[in-house]
Amino acid sequence: MSALKVLTVSDYTVTPWKNGGGITQDVLLLPQGASQDDFDIRVSLAPIVTEGPFSSFPGIDRHITLLTTERLELVFATQTRSLARLQPLHFDSVQQPVSRLPDGAVRVLNVMTRRGRWNAQVMPATGDNAPLLAAPEGGLVVLHAVSGTWQVGDRLGAALVHPGETLVGRDDATLRASCDPSGEAIIAFLSPAGAR
Length: 196
Hints:
The protein has strands at 4-7, 13-16, 23-30, 41-48, 60-66, 72-75, 80-83, 89-92, 98-100, 106-114, 118-126, 132-133, 140-147, 150-154, 157-161, 166-169, 175-178, 184-192. It is mostly beta strands and 196 residues long. The protein has two domains: 12-114, Jelly Rolls (Sandwich); 118-192, Jelly Rolls, CATH 2.60.120.10. A six-stranded antiparallel β-sheet has the order 2-3-4-10-5-8, with no helix packed on it. A hairpin with a 6-residue loop joins strand 2 (13-16) and strand 3 (23-30).
């Protein structure tokens, strides 16, 4: 069995936003002992309940994914981007877009990596496409269950990931993720910069 760990809500750490405008649940913060100021990898869940600017994180790439059906717009200096549900948006986190909430509060998943050290590829998955998962060499694969109970594993066994939970895999075994067809998840492949 590959090195898998399922993180539940009780494992998440609630922290205030860097700019004080809200709160975040830190799902994964690496390296161990890192803070909001010096992390290399950060996976977090955040409710956005009021409109306002994002925190600035110089040197950090951010993939943000809208998890709820309510609309979210991010107003950048030169453009406004409307996020589609479960479709990640990537931007340089030194930017401080202002959130607009036409339908009220939303919830998002953030995958943040320090540029020059880590790269991230983030994508949605559904239960009807049974995605294959493999952590990049020296890296991680992360599956956050949005809806449905996901089974992730190989012929030796499987881990169950319930809605709101997050699976982290740390080796290069190829795993199959399955769920009923209506299940939804966000998957992130995290690889060291310069890895091939």
